[in-house]
Amino acid sequence: RDAAGDFWIVEEYGPSLLHVDGRTGAVLSKRMPGRGLPAVLAARAPNRGFEGVALAPGGHLFAALQSALDVDGETADTALFSRLLELNPRTGCTHMFAVPVDRARYRKAQDQKIGDLHALDDETGVAAAPVMPAVLQVSVPRQVIPLRLQRLEIG
Questions:
Q1: Is the dihedral of CA 16, 151, 88, 90 positive or negative?
Q2: What's the confidence (pLDDT) of residue 6?
Q3: Is beta strand 81-87 parallel, antiparallel or unpaired with respect to 36-37?
Q4: Closest CA to 149 of 125, 133, 138
Q5: Least confident of 18-22, 62-66, 142-146
Q6: Of 11, 7, 32, 37, the residue nearest 19 (C-alpha)
Q7: C-alpha–C-alpha distance, residues 76 and 123, integer Å
Q8: What is the largest CA-CA distance in the chain?
Q9: Which of 5, 73, 75, 91 is the most buried (most CB within 10 A)?
Q10: Residues sharing a CB contact under 8 Å with residue 66, sequence separation 6 or more, in sequence order
Q11: What CA–CA distances, in Å, run from 105 to 77, 80, 101, 138, 148?
């Protein structure tokens, strides 16, 4: 919940970011690629859009794409990073940050998946540059999926 008591929800198929009234449940705004969010986010692989959202103490929102983008159907396996989006809800300004793919751990870029994130603070770096843990998992067909916690420092 933000300071006004409203909710911010991510949806992975747009991918989209929704602002929802905390009292009525009405959708106040919906941002999508090219409509309030960077158009390149439309290159998300199927079922690999926004997976986590975190509200930093300073009020900025951060949304994590589950996996690397698949630009022109060519980068799902070879990308060197996935993306983290920052949104200033007051101004609508966005920034994107690169989350490096650990190529020593993951054979294909799409194997590294961000499952969730949580903002710890916004004191490091430029305005609203939080330190946050991110839950990452690896794709292992028909096996227990190992999870690991990774600290992301932005700025």
A1: positive
A2: 96
A3: unpaired
A4: 133
A5: 142-146
A6: 7
A7: 33
A8: 47
A9: 75
A10: 12, 44, 48, 49, 50, 51, 82, 113, 114, 115
A11: 13, 13, 9, 9, 12
* Region 128-155 average pLDDT: 52
Average pLDDT, the chain: 78
Q: What is the pTM of this model?
A: 0.77
| Residues forming beta bridges with residue 6, ordered by sequence position | none
149 phi/psi in degrees, rounded to 5: -100, 130
d(CA 144, CA 135): 15
- R_g of the chain, CA atoms, integer Å: 15
Sequence length of the chain is 155
Q: Judge whether residue 105 has pLDDT over 70.
A: yes
Q: Answer yes or no: is pLDDT of 126 > 70.
A: no
**Residue ranges of the alpha helices (H) in the chain?**
none
**CA quadruple 82, 16, 21, 52: dihedral sign:** negative
Check: CB of residue 85 under 8 Å from CB of residue 115.
no
